[in-house]
């Protein structure tokens, strides 16, 4: 996407197409009305100060977004069927972008990695959600020597009884990078590791993203930027076999993913784009 297309993407459909009634903008708040995580308030306050928008009205929806978002909501992500909220980059920036801008040094050549599908993650999300983590571990935990998946941590007490036996060791990013094929599985919202995974020299395997953020996950092309999996992960063994038989195609997919990630590499440009998004938001909603 070019600069203007990305700006429109982050603004959401209604604002970018000027297809809304300003009377809908009723939940007007200022930052002082919120008592929320510093991961969200401090960077957002900094952005408001930097763009001279401290006296404007807005609605900030902090945290992991897992449902309906209106056109005037400011969020770190939105679900694919809610295209109207506004996405910013600064909200919980470190969690999603630190490992992208600080690429791990552990960089084994693809041909020297293990022919294994690998995943670790915590028990976020919900068992009734499409392509969820619980389906993955139930279906593939210790079922195939070349598929190594498991929870690294039980983060919710309600899941402890059913999933404590699906826990494996917690690992670093460097450990992920020892494997040719790494899974991306959404949790409460996006997979927070997808940014660095697409920027690595591993093949990313995942179901079609249901959540989009500053990364623009919903613009990724299946079997071009990543290997597409069924929502129930039933084809994981089959796709592993395909990858092993098509190493040249895997290298192409890695290159395509890396090329996609290059559009985020210029931090100064990314900051300017975010400033343009928030300025346009206030221009439209505070008029």
Protein model, in words:
This protein has 287 residues and is α/β, with parallel strands linked by helices. It folds into two domains: 3-93 and 266-285, no CATH class; 100-264, Glycogen Phosphorylase B (Rossmann fold, 3-Layer(aba) Sandwich), CATH 3.40.50.2000. Helix content is 35%, strand content 14%. The chain has eleven helices and ten strands. Helix 1 packs across helix 11. The longest helix is centred in the last third of the chain and has 19 residues, at 267-285. It is globular.
Protein traits:
287 residues; Rossmann fold; 11 helices; alpha/beta; globular; five-stranded parallel β-sheet; three-stranded parallel β-sheet; 2 domains
Q: What number is the mean pLDDT? A: 89
Structural domain tally: 2
CATH topology of the largest domain: Rossmann fold
State the major sheet: 5 strands, parallel
Q: Give the C-level CATH assignment of the largest domain.
A: Alpha Beta
**Using only CA atoms, what is the Rg?**
20 Å
Which spans have pLDDT < 50 for at least 5 consecutive residues? 30-37
Q: Quote the distance from N terminus to C terminus.
A: 29 Å
Q: For the largest beta sheet, what order do the strands appear in spatially?
A: 6-5-7-8-10
Q: What is the assigned CATH homologous superfamily of the largest domain? A: Glycogen Phosphorylase B
Name the beta content range.
5-15%
Structural classification: alpha/beta
> How is the quaternary structure best described?
single chain
Count of DSSP H/I helices: 11
The count of strands amounts to 10
The SSE order reads: HHHEEEEHEHEHHEHEEEHHH
- Helicity range of the residues? 25-40%
Quick one: overall form? globular
């Amino acid at each position: 996407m070019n600069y203007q297309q990305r700006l429109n993407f982050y603004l959401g459909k209604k604002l970018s197409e000027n297809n809304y009634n300003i009377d809908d903008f009723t939940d007007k708040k200022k930052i002082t009305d919120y008592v929320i995580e510093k991961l969200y308030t401090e960077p957002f306050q900094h952005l408001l100060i930097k763009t001279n928008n401290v006296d404007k009205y807005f609605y900030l929806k902090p945290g992991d977004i897992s449902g309906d978002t209106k056109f005037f909501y400011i969020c770190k992500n939105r679900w694919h069927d809610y295209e109207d909220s506004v996405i910013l980059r600064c909200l919980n920036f470190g969690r999603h972008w630190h490992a992208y801008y600080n690429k791990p040094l552990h960089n084994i050549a693809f041909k020297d990695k293990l022919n294994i599908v690998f995943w670790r993650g915590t028990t976020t999300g919900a068992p009734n959600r499409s392509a969820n983590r619980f389906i993955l571990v139930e279906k593939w935990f210790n079922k195939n020597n070349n598929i190594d998946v498991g929870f690294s941590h039980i983060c919710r007490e309600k899941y402890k009884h059913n999933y404590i036996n699906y826990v494996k060791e917690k690992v670093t990013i460097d450990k992920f990078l020892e494997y040719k094929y790494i899974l991306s599985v959404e949790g409460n919202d996006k997979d927070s590791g997808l940014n660095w995974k697409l920027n690595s020299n591993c093949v990313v395997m995942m179901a079609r993203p249901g959540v989009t953020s500053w990364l623009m996950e919903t613009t990724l092309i299946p079997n071009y930027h990543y290997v597409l999996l069924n929502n129930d992960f039933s084809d994981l063994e089959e796709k592993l076999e395909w990858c092993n038989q098509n190493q040249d195609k895997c290298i192409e997919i890695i290159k395509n993913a890396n090329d996609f990630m290059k559009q985020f590499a210029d931090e100064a440009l990314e900051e300017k784009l975010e400033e343009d998004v928030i300025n346009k938001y206030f221009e439209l909603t505070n008029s």
